[in-house]
Amino acid sequence: MKVVEVRGLTKKYGKKTAISNLSFEVNEGELFGFIGPDGAGKTTLFRILTTLLLPNSGSAKILGKDVVKDYKYLRNHIGYMPGRFSLYMDLTVEENLRFFASIFNTTIEENYQLVKDIYSQIEPFKKRRAGQLSGGMKQKLALSCALIHKPRLLVLDEPTTGVDAVSRKEFWEMLKRLKEQGITIIVSTPYMDEAVLCDRIAFIQNGSILDINTPAGIISGYKKKLFSIETMRKYNVIKILETYEYKDSVFPFGDSIHYTDKRESINSEILIDYLHSTGINDCSVSEIESGIEDVFMSLIKEGTDGQ
Amino acid sequence: MDNNHKVIEVTDLTKKFGNFTAVSQITFDVNEGEIFGFLGANGAGKTTAMKMLTGLLSPTSGKAKVAGFDVYKQSEQIKKHIGYMSQKFSLYEDLTIVENISFYAGIYGLTDEQISEKTNFLLKKLDLEKSRNELIKSLPLGWKQKLAFSVAIIHDPGIVFLDEPTGGVDPITRRQFWNLIYEASENKKTIFVTTHYMDEAEYCDRISIMVDGKIEALDSPVNLKEKYYCKSINEVFIHLARKNKNQ
Amino acid sequence: MRTFANFILKEVYHITRDWRSLIVLICIPVIQLFLFGYAIRTELNEAEICIIDHSKDYITQEITNKLISSGYFKLNAYIENEKQIEHLFKNGSVKEVIIFEQHFAKKLEKEGKASIMLVADASNPNIATLVTSYTSSIIRTYQLELNAKAIKANTLIIPEVKMMYNPELKSVYMFVPGLIALILMLVSALMTSIAITREKEMGSMEVLLVSPLKPQMIIIGKVVPYVIISFFNSLTVLALSILIFKIPFEGSFLLFTFESVLFIITALALGILISTIANSQLAAMMMSLGGLLMPTVLLSGFIYPVENMPLPLRNTFATCYSYIGFFCFPRTVYNTTE
């Protein structure tokens, strides 16, 4: 069953198009990720899906119901965690959760089983005000609050932005367990390394979807030869390659440099020879498998070059 | 790298707020032209430490010199010799590009001549000549960030403090931003940067990882990975932060 | 229904958590009650009067006693001639001068009528009207008593009212100069406090503080444009009031300018003070409105006369809101002579 079916969805703010002609589907029990930078249209899309915003054209169906007509039904079955300010900082942990339970006409006790896994970690601090929690704990509380009414679809808008790597990792572990309980999850993130943790991902940039696929599918769709260059003089090498006539793209990438070439026949030796000829001797070059981030960057590049 | 010239020297720097110790006896040096990554979990004390080094907050105890000036007595001098950019705010949205540039150049005491020279140079370098009189809010986030960095070093400071400069930016723009950082570092500018992107930590010459107000690890990314038998800085970070939590 | 009750409960939590707002919520009605109950009075309370008694007989004495024992008036002094009136009014404390004509009692007995002249300082038309109507009604009551005693039926005491400085009792004479102060308060205090808290809210304050600019320079830099705007504002209002509302401006322009600048600086200082406490633009606005503008309107004599407030309160507020002086000030500069 399709939990989400979106067809030709468009939203404009005045002249500015926030999202244009989006179409995608999300299957039941799927963990679906939207990957894209700030201003790509993720929040606008999520607000339409959660019935908070009306689209200009196109349709969106969730659990078989229309987001415009059946918003009352849907609001009871969607859990939404907006990027920021979703908690009341002046209420205690327990009061927050109790409040969110009550507006959906349920109680903590009734659905405790559902949030137990997450909530039990912050329960020792239940008398503490939400504003005094650490970033990671706030996140757990916000997730508990979004879950307390037993939603069938969970929509999380950039839950990990500005959160440190440890809390991010824990958060994704929680999502995985929720998924196992059969909850469908849509999540957005600007962090590429989180993309591989989703079942399927959609790259979104400037209001359009660049690609939708499984992480593995996306990677295998990348046809270019990708080279990783390791050197102590990263900046020099980047500068040299930037002006190389056959260069397709060159980016710093973690502890190395990722490079693609315009020639089909390119191999590591050619590249090493070229770098040697420019006086770079202390480098090693190897052809590598591409990652999600490489694909996304090449998609963005195609998009901007095509304009 | 010139190891003899230290532009930031910190010894046992501590800051307490009442009973709470936000920064506890941190000690480190940063060399000239180095890209120094200052990592830590939320609430680990990064912001407090950075405030002390930029002269915004007076330490409780310990010693620190930035650009050769003492943080207790010479914060005015420090401010003249550093650049600062934060993710929370970079440029005035309701001013044009040119107005923003001349504002910042002005508060750092550049002359009118220098300002117009620098403005033209920056616009050309960032390819923004056509939109020089557009409001900042009409610029895409990535451009804003790049412009903000260029503006932060407009007075040619020896040290630049960057507080999560690349939050929410697409991966290509993020890398273009880092190219600017590399370039500045080539020009002997010292870069002191915080980030939540662990792959960016790998771009740094050396990084420190702060946990609960203390510096838990400090070395080059390569050495740190070797030391903790990890494949990436992300793993090192998680290892250190978790280890401390379980204690 | 339970859902709704829970929603209300949450709101109650919010309110109780923020004890500062709670105090404000509870205190505002109390303060307002006391303000309107004690401080803001529309009736007279010991208004100072002077008397020129050309007759000095038993009737003028009786009328004087009636006036003073009413509690509404307080005798400042007996004076000898009309020339002193202007000087008294300029000093500001005396609100009305009562002049009994010569041979008052005799005239009343022989001709059945006599006249009293009531001279009021109408640069504040509200007070002037109040003072003269109270005096007239006391005199009327006395006249009725006199008739009832039937010494001589149908005696008539005629109060003649003379309004000095503003004979047509145009309220615009009073409101426009007061408005200058109000506008200056709005632009100077409100706008400055908002402008500074905006930088705090955006995070740009941090960037500025890290720059070599001295903190005092940042503050002064933020304030200077508002000083200029405020000053321009006061000149505009002044020009309009003279050209369109035809309000006579008789005082010293230099003095007016000097006093305006002084007032603007005070208001700006208050604005800066607010911006140090307020963390958001909204809070700054609430504090400026509640702490500065409301008292400006209610307690400075702009609408309700300051003279009617109880003395301790008057002193307190006069000290707290230094600009009360400014409210009276333009009025005196505007119309010093008739």
Short recap of the structure:
The complex is a heterotrimer of chains A (307), B (247) and C (338). In chain A, 34% of the residues lie in helices and 29% in strands. Chain A has 307 residues and is α/β, with parallel strands linked by helices.
Explain the overall architecture.
The complex is a heterotrimer of chains A (307), B (247) and C (338). Chain A folds into two domains: 211 residues, P-loop containing nucleotide triphosphate hydrolases (Rossmann fold), CATH 3.40.50.300; 64 residues, Alpha-Beta Plaits (2-Layer Sandwich), CATH 3.30.70. With 307 residues, chain A is an alpha/beta fold. In chain A, strands 6-7-8-3-9-10 form a six-stranded mixed beta sheet, sandwiched between helices. Chain A has a four-stranded antiparallel beta sheet with strand order 2-1-4-5. The mean pLDDT of chain A is 89. Chain A has ten helices and 14 strands. With 247 residues, chain B is an alpha/beta fold. Chain B has a single domain, classed as P-loop containing nucleotide triphosphate hydrolases (Rossmann fold, 3-Layer(aba) Sandwich), CATH 3.40.50. Chain B has a six-stranded mixed beta sheet, sandwiched between helices. In chain B, helix 6 links the parallel strand 7 and strand 8. Chain B is globular, with a radius of gyration of 18 Å. The N and C termini of chain B lie far apart (38 Å). Chain C has a five-stranded mixed beta sheet with strand order 2-1-3-4-5, sandwiched between helices. Chain C is 66% helix and 11% strand. Chain C is elongated and about 90 Å long. With 338 residues, chain C is of the alpha/beta class. Chain C folds into three domains: 31 residues; 118 residues, 3-Layer(aba) Sandwich (abc type-2 transporter like fold), CATH 3.40.1710; 164 residues, no CATH class. Classes of the chains: A alpha/beta (307), B alpha/beta (247), C alpha/beta (338). Chains A and B meet through helix 6, helix 8, strand 12 and helix 10 of A and helix 6 and helix 9 of B.
Produce the secondary structure layout.
The complex is a heterotrimer of chains A (307), B (247) and C (338).
Chain A: E1 2-13, E2 16-27, E3 31-35, H1 42-49, E4 57-62, E5 65-66, H2 71-75, E6 78-81, H3 93-103, H4 112-122, H5 135-147, E7 153-156, H6 165-180, E8 184-189, E9 200-205, E10 208-213, H7 215-220, E11 226-231, H8 234-242, E12 247-253, E13 256-261, H9 268-277, E14 283-288, H10 292-306
Parallel strand pairs in A: 3-8, 3-9, 6-7, 7-8
Antiparallel strand pairs in A: 1-2, 1-4, 4-5, 9-10, 11-13, 11-14, 12-13
Helix pairs in contact in A: 3-5, 4-5, 5-6
Chain B: E1 6-17, E2 20-31, E3 35-40, H1 46-53, E4 61-66, E5 69-70, H2 75-81, E6 82-86, H3 97-107, H4 112-125, H5 141-152, E7 159-163, H6 171-186, E8 190-194, H7 198-201, E9 206-211, E10 214-219, H8 221-227, H9 233-246
Parallel strand pairs in B: 3-8, 3-9, 6-7, 7-8
Antiparallel strand pairs in B: 1-2, 1-4, 4-5, 9-10
Chain C: H1 2-17, H2 19-39, E1 47-53, H3 58-69, E2 73-78, H4 84-91, E3 94-100, H5 104-111, E4 113-121, H6 125-149, E5 156-164, H7 171-202, H8 204-210, H9 215-243, H10 253-277, H11 281-299, H12 311-320, H13 324-334
Parallel strand pairs in C: 1-2, 1-3, 4-5
Antiparallel strand pairs in C: 3-4
Helix pairs in contact in C: 7-9, 7-10, 7-11, 7-13, 9-10, 10-11, 10-13
